[in-house]
Design a protein that fits this description.
mainly alpha; 0% strand
């Protein structure tokens, strides 16, 4: 091995705790970011569904329903048989 590689290994060994600590912090931060983004997406979808339900409820309250009779269609279908 070259002297440069030996010195690099010594330096890595000396700084191993701080390197591992930095890696753990980066991992925790990445998991936290993914969790926040996931929660935001779920909240957004939930809010959208809630708003759609409210709009549907308002739409049903303002419209009146008309009855449709299907006797003419039934009579026609009965004549086909």
């Amino acid at each position: 091995m070259s002297q440069q590689k030996v010195n690099q290994k010594k330096q890595d060994k000396a700084n191993r705790k701080s390197i591992l600590r930095k890696k753990k912090i980066e991992e925790i931060l990445s998991i936290a970011c993914v969790a926040v983004i996931g929660i935001a997406i779920v909240a957004w979808i939930g809010f959208s569904v809630y708003k759609k339900a409210e709009q549907a409820k308002e739409a049903n309250a303002t419209y009146e329903y008309n009855e449709i009779t299907t006797t003419a269609i039934q009579d026609y279908l009965n004549t086909l048989n």
